[in-house]
């Protein structure tokens, strides 16, 4: 049997294993490939080896550790990005460990490189008032304005990731008495998300405006040229209206608005409204409840109210004790046991 080169394993992993065995989306494969491009670039600089010539004998724990340092010091990547790149490397070598037993020692060596601890920041979001201001900006007297409003409302109401919005087809929108959207999320997992009747009406008008009623397979949102909308296009629309609304964005460090900020805003608003965290998890399409719980920590006002409510039962009225009870310390302390 021919021994596989490192480049062969990378190709098989991206072209066969990820899409066919793991059901990974194009976005996932694109993200992983960016990490491998960075790794190849580093190896070319560090070792003077072109991608096609890089082999397993050149790879070890020390090289991966140097790659991680290079990402932060030379490429100015954050610790989070460094961890994402390392995670992609780890995923590749876990695959190689299964497919090529002869490389198990090298794989174990690479997999021993640990993630860097990072400061977990609370998710940034728009307040409810800021969100209302943003949605009030598009000019609904024009088709482009109505399209932009439909995009913003759908993005917020369904708490969509950018790629989920871009993947929507006309046939994924159900505008009946209980309007919903069929969303294809990470790992091609589908979920049905309810939307408000106001958003449904905006989508109904948009679909009618663009003659899409009988075209279920068409991309739902397009740009001014009629081509599929891009992530950059969504970000441009967001920045445009955030600027015109002069949003203070008090919970967004640096005022950097993005499609994911809108998703976080919806999640935070659901928490503030007292929606069960497990419903929010399913609504957002999270696999782990731990991911959703970040939004609980994100809202200090909700936390404060919960603490105050819980504290009420702990307050003991000191007037309920007689003078003699207080003077007799043993009896005084025993009275507290009656309040359990």
TrEMBL record:
Where does the Tyr recombinase domain start and stop, copy by copy?
Answer: 121-308
| Pfam families, sorted | Phage_int_SAM_1, Phage_integrase
Q: What does this protein do?
A: Site-specific tyrosine recombinase, which acts by catalyzing the cutting and rejoining of the recombining DNA molecules.
Q: Could you provide one GO biological process annotation from this protein's UniProt record?
A: DNA recombination
Kindly provide the name given to this protein in its UniProt entry: Integrase
The chain's coiled-coil residues are: none
Which InterPro entries has this protein been placed in? CB, DNA_brk_join_enz, Integrase-like_cat_sf, Integrase_catalytic, Integrase_recombinase_N, Integrase_SAM-like_N, Tyrosine_recombinase_XerCD
What Gene3D superfamilies does the annotation carry?
1.10.150.130, Intergrase catalytic core
- GO MF, one example: DNA binding
Domain of life, per the record? Answer: Bacteria
Q: Which SUPFAM superfamilies match?
A: DNA breaking-rejoining enzymes, lambda integrase-like, N-terminal domain
Give the keywords, sorted.
DNA integration, DNA recombination, DNA-binding
Organism of provenance:
Acetivibrio mesophilus
Recorded family membership: Belongs to the 'phage' integrase family.
**Per the database record, which ranges form the Core-binding (CB) domain?**
4-97
């Amino acid at each position: 049997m021919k021994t596989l080169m490192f480049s062969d394993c990378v190709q098989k992993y991206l072209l066969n294993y990820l899409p066919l065995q793991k059901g990974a989306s194009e976005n996932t494969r694109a993200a992983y490939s960016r990490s491998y491009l960075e790794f190849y670039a580093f190896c070319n600089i560090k070792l003077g080896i072109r991608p096609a010539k890089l082999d397993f004998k050149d790879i070890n724990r020390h090289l991966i550790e140097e790659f991680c340092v290079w990402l932060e010091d030379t490429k100015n990547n954050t610790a989070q990005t460094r961890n994402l790149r390392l995670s992609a490397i780890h995923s590749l070598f876990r695959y190689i460990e299964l497919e090529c037993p002869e490389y198990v020692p090298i794989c174990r060596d690479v997999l021993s490189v640990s993630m860097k601890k990072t400061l977990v920041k609370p998710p940034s979001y728009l307040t409810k008032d800021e969100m209302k201001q943003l949605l009030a900006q598009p000019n609904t007297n024009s088709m482009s304005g109505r399209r932009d409003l439909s995009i913003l409302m759908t993005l917020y109401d369904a708490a969509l990731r950018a790629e989920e919005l871009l993947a929507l087809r006309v046939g994924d929108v159900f505008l009946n008495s209980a309007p919903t959207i069929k969303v294809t999320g990470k790992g091609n997992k589908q979920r049905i998300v309810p939307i408000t009747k106001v958003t449904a009406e905006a989508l109904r008008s948009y679909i009618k405006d663009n003659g899409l009623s009988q075209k279920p397979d068409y991309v739902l949102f397009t740009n001014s040229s009629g081509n599929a909308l891009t992530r950059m296009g969504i970000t441009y629309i967001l920045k445009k209206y955030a600027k015109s609304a002069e949003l203070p964005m008090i919970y967004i460090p640096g005022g950097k608005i993005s499609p994911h900020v809108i998703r976080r805003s919806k999640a935070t608003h659901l928490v503030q409204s007292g929606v069960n965290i497990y419903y929010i998890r399913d609504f957002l399409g999270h696999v782990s409840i731990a991911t959703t719980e970040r939004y609980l920590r994100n809202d200090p006002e909700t936390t404060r109210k919960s603490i105050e409510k819980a504290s009420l039962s702990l307050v003991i009225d000191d007037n309920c004790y007689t003078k003699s009870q207080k003077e007799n310390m043993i009896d005084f302390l025993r009275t507290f046991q009656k309040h359990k």
